[in-house]
Amino acid sequence: MTPAAERHDSPALHAQGLYIGGEWLPGSGIPVVDPATGEVLADVADAGVADALRAVDAADAAAAGWRATPARQRADILRRWFQLMTDHAEELARLISLENGKALPDARGEVAYAAEFFRWYAEEAVRIQGEFRHAPSGANHILVDHEPIGIALLITPWNFPAAMATRKIGPALAAGCTVILKPASETPLTAYAMARLGAQAGVPPGVVNVLTTTQPAAVSNAMLADPRVRKLSFTGSTQVGRVLLAEAAKTVVSCSMELGGNAPFLVFDDADLEAALDGAIIAKMRNAGEACTAANRFYVQSDIHDAFVAGLTKRMAALRVGSGLAEATQVGPMITANAVSKIDRLVSGAIAQGARVHTGGKPLPGSGYFYPPTVLDNVPLDAEIAHAEIFGPVASVYRFKTEAEAIQLANHTEYGLAAYIYSGDLSRALRVGRAIESGMIAINRGIMSDPAAPFGGVKQSGLGREGGLTGVLEFMEPKYFAVDF
Ligand code: NAD
């Protein structure tokens, strides 16, 4: 164990290895860094192509048994996993905070959200429906069954190390699929800790395999080329999503893609200003802005614009920045030094083009990867920050006059994941929501994520939905029988 890790008591920092076929295969080669200090916490195994194919073998060996396991039994295992995550919630939250940096309240929120996917899919596992109909010709019957699609490769990002994994594992296991999870190498400890809890919950060996690697392309390409792998469920950047879609095309693997976002946050002048400010802080600052649903562009109607900027500045400047594990912290560090440099580049570029800084605006000195809550207005529409996913605690505010202008600005992006609308007029909010090209719209709320609702984007924010009533179908194929009797 490293000296930094000795200061933390989590058993998840010990015994790092690949989790394949229910066994821990020792290894090393991936340092895990505490973003609050830059210190190395642990060293986890670095899988190569041979390990990846071993994981496919393990998932294949377990596939028939898992598929044949009664839905009630699969549901019971998921439910026990939910309970174990809930029982170990504080330990998991501290681990997430340690390796990802997010403030403990955010980490606790993530654990609750993540565990809920297991409870929700425990409930859904026993409710998967088919169809029985008469053919319109009257000649026969149409019977449709849903079958598990096959072995699923799950690739997840670092920003929600628990929730992005459970949002895939839950429906996959409910559907009857076996999986290989490849978490981001910045935050592998949470994934391995959850695999341990899964084994305790009764997940049979090989049903869930976890591997970390420094060669994600080679490892995932090898798995996608294996004809036994029939599903890719990816959450991450649009850039990597495009590469993986091209790779999956070679073997025509079914893809679900949860990609980048560029959420607009619209405030009309009939909105409740205080409620809009509360919502803005949640939509912008949950996870210190490192969320795909994070409000990325604030469009505020002229009459309310200055009061909104003043209120937002006051709230942002009052947020306490620090190590995620310190109880008082509301804004933790960014994930890496590179993340801070990217935010700095976007903000400096906007300032050089005439943006006004109301608070923040420069990386914080010292060790760790800290960027302060920042508010900008007067940002030119051609600044890079007006189009790029910021992924940090920076709110850039723009002014609009008419509803049509707000819609046009909101849609001026290749992304279409989430959008927020604040208005006192519900019919206007729904009308605008319909016109916005986005998979999810929050009206007079700063958050929309809910395991019981379909999460996902349109345009280049993704393909398919996770959660809700249809999430399990991403891991199933319909099989149609034409029946004459
Ligand atoms: P990323 O795309 O860099 O990495 C995501 C995962 O893909 C990681 O596990 C990484 O190791 C792996 N990866 C990278 N290159 C690969 C390759 N060539 N082949 C196979 N795997 C590869 O994204 P990130 O920086 O970890 O996460 C941030 C991004 O994720 C943001 O764009 C954010 O919007 C997006 N995100 C989207 C959602 C959503 O639900 N839509 C949720 C969370 C994050």
TrEMBL record:
GO terms for molecular function: succinate-semialdehyde dehydrogenase (NAD+) activity. The keyword Chaperone does not apply. The active site is at E258. InterPro entries: Ald_DH/histidinol_DH, Ald_DH_C, Ald_DH_CS_GLU, Ald_DH_N, Aldehyde_DH_dom, Aldehyde_DH_Superfamily. It comes from the Bacteria. Residues 28-479 form the Aldehyde dehydrogenase domain. Pfam families: Aldedh. Transmembrane segments: none annotated. Keywords: Oxidoreductase. GO terms for biological process: gamma-aminobutyric acid catabolic process. This is NAD-dependent succinate-semialdehyde dehydrogenase. Belongs to the aldehyde dehydrogenase family. The keyword Oxidoreductase applies.
